[in-house]
Amino acid sequence: MKIFEEKIAPNARRVRMFLAEKSISDIEYVQLDLQKGDNVSKEFKQMNPLAKIPVMELEDGSYLSESVAICRYFEAVKPSPSLMGESPLQQANIEMWQRRCELYFMNLIGMGFQHCSGFFADRMTPVPVWGQECVKDASKFMPLLNDHLANSEYIAGDTFSIADITAFVSIDFARVIKLRIGDEYTHLLRWYKQVNSRPSARA
Amino acid sequence: MKIFEEKIAPNARRVRMFLAEKSISDIEYVQLDLQKGDNVSKEFKQMNPLAKIPVMELEDGSYLSESVAICRYFEAVKPSPSLMGESPLQQANIEMWQRRCELYFMNLIGMGFQHCSGFFADRMTPVPVWGQECVKDASKFMPLLNDHLANSEYIAGDTFSIADITAFVSIDFARVIKLRIGDEYTHLLRWYKQVNSRPSARA
């Protein structure tokens, strides 16, 4: 199997970290240059009409995109260790926190970066005032996460999950909008250090 | 079990439609008025600190939010009929299309509406020029979906799934930004008519 990605992109890192946690290593990675527009080429859009990375090419030649969908595939083919939950409540709780970390943090950081920096100005209309709103809202997620981690070892309970991967990758990515974990967020710092010490953090 | 929602909200409708497809009817629905701010009250934020609906109260008194997480819970407790897929590839394909319909369509319609109308101006900063970008981008998803449905009975293959629910609810919701399925999108119209005839479309 082959994954088309750009190593520094946070969605690509989510998938690599997920696969490292599952000890899945028989994947060929193909690097693209997003700023050069490798992902908006006609060829790439045949793999993913939405022009987003990562995209996985399966053995039958079909393509799968959306990082969480790629993770879902591997969760189903190799359920252990579980990163998306086992009991109904655990599955739902992980899904809830994964989505919270993505929708109200990761995606806001991404839009904040793109709209403030004009990084993809050749293919979108940056709206800096909107970018600033995103940065402001993203920064509000840190205290929420910190409060939550006061009573929870990991983001979605007492086991490591895809929700931790999304939150961790987002926090590292947040440096592009100059957002760092403040010293006052002691629980968030404790959790960050813990996740950062996992071998998958280097994937 | 109890679900706190506002009947007209698209995320609330997603859950009701999902439950109707699963013939789950023993749920008490509690109606909130979002424009009045029922969801930003201190009491509500104890159920969901992100202040979003729907929220489900479980029998043990705990709360679950994020519509797809609520659906995931019911998919696990009542797997048949499956709406999130059975084989690994089917699960991944449904996850991919569900996310595409949500990220590049439903969420854009929502932001287009909020930023152009100022509906929630008391609790957010509307950026009309960003709203207009969202409307423009959301409208590009219709031809993509139409092309895809030329060769696919449902959004994620030959069975009805949560991806169809997200796309269907989004299309109805799109009237708030005056976006309708154009007559030229014959495959999308065929699919819409088919989904609209299911009893769950009235849930």
Write up what this structure looks like.
Two copies of one chain form a homodimer. The two termini of chain A are 17 Å apart. Chain A is of the alpha+beta class. Chain A contains seven helices and four strands. The radius of gyration of chain A is 17 Å and the shape is globular. Chain A has a four-stranded mixed beta sheet, covered by helices on one side. Chain A has two domains: 76 residues, Glutaredoxin (3-Layer(aba) Sandwich); 115 residues, Glutathione S-transferase Yfyf (Class Pi), Chain A, domain 2, CATH 1.20.1050.10. Chains A and B meet through helix 3, helix 4 and helix 5 of A and helix 3, helix 4 and helix 5 of B.
By CATH reckoning, the class of the largest domain in chain A would read: Mainly Alpha
Low-confidence stretches of chain A: none
* Run of helices and strands of chain A: EHEHEEHHHHH
Largest interface: A-B, 33 and 33 residues
User: What strand line-up does the widest sheet of chain A have?
Assistant: 2-1-3-4
Record keyword descriptors for this entry.
alpha+beta; 2 domains; Glutaredoxin; Glutathione S-transferase Yfyf (Class Pi), Chain A, domain 2; homodimer; 203 residues
Mind sketching the topology for me?
The structure is a homodimer of 203-residue chains.
Chain A: E1 2-5, H1 10-21, E2 28-31, H2 42-47, E3 55-57, E4 63-65, H3 67-77, H4 88-117, H5 128-149, H6 162-173, H7 186-196
Parallel strand pairs in A: 1-2
Antiparallel strand pairs in A: 1-3, 3-4
Short overview:
The structure is a homodimer of 203-residue chains. Chain A is α+β, with helices and mostly antiparallel strands.
